[in-house]
Amino acid sequence: MSVKLRxxxxxxxxxxxxxxxxIDSRTSRDGKYIDKIGHYNPMTNPAEIVINEERALYWxxxxxxxxxxxxxxxxxxxxxxxxxxxxxGADKEKCEEEMKRWELLQLEREKRxxxxxxxxxxxxxxxxxxxxxxxxxxxxxxxxxEEKSD
Length: 150
Hints:
alpha+beta, CATH 3.30.1320.10, five-stranded mixed sheet, 22% strand
């Protein structure tokens, strides 16, 4: 029996909500699962990801294979990094140190992303300003031509 970590779809039509579950690979997507380890709600901004780290690590140690989507969710939460460190035999202190470094990198990445979004908004506002000034200028020139012809 091959065990997988994958998503189980819940929620209404066009409003998906997923449970992250441990399931036999032969079972259908929404079939009976072995263990629920978290949930994922892509409809919120930012997407809500809640994962029970202990259970996820337990199932990874038992040989469960995550799907691509679950792998990316585990990676976003730092669980795969922790699993790799444990697998390589890192002691608890080194593991905690690496996780703190990873968290700092994630904070820096988020700040950089916010700054880029602010920059895009500013550029868009500046572009709108320039186009409105150009339109005003064009309207002014047509009025000047009409005045000269009278």
